[in-house]
User: Fold this.
Amino acid sequence: MTTTKMNIEHAVSPVVGVMLMLVVTIIIAAIVSAFAGGLATGTSKAPQMTMTATFSNSTGMTIMHQGGDSISTLSTHFVVTPTSDFGTYQHLHWTINSSVISVDTSSGFLPWDQPGAFSSGLARTFQAGETANISVNDLNQVQPGTYSDTSGLSNAKQADGRWSDAFSPSYGFMSTGSLGERFNLQLVDNSGKTIATTVVTIQP
Assistant:
C-alpha cells in the first residue's frame, strides 16, 4: 500500500513539470506573435515604379511611368540632384515645383499638385503608361530658386516673377554649358521614401 502511494506521488511531479513548460511556451509564443504583428502593422512599404525621363531646353521635360504601382500625386514629389558631371555640386538638390507638372490622363492634362486647388481638378494618381510633362516655359522650376538673387551671378529671375537656379553657370540645367551632362531624378513620398529613380541627360 505504501509503495503504491509513493509511486503515485513520484508520477505527479513530471506531469506538473510538463504542464508548466507548455504554459510558458504558449505565453512566449503569444508575446512573440503580438510583437511581430505590431511590427508588421507599424511598417508601411512605399509603392515602387519604374520611370524614364527626358529633359530638353527646347521642348521641355517628360517623365514616363514605365510600370509598377499607381502613385498618389498628392503625397509625392520629384527631387533632382546633379551627377558627378557637375563636379563638386553633387551635394545640391531641388524639389521640382509640382504645380508646373501636368499628367496626361484619360481625362486630359491635369496638374500633379497645386496649392489651394480642389483634388477633383488634379491628376491624383500617376499610373503605368501615363506621362507627366513640364512645358519649356516652366523648365526653370525644375530647379526653383533657393534664395533671392542679390548678386545677379547665381540666380535668374524669370518674366513670371519666379526665381530659379536653372541658369547658374555652375550647376544650372538650363545653362548652355550643361548640355550633354546628366542629373538624377527621384520620385519620393512625403516621408522621404524613394519610389523611383532615373538618370536624365540634358538635351538642347
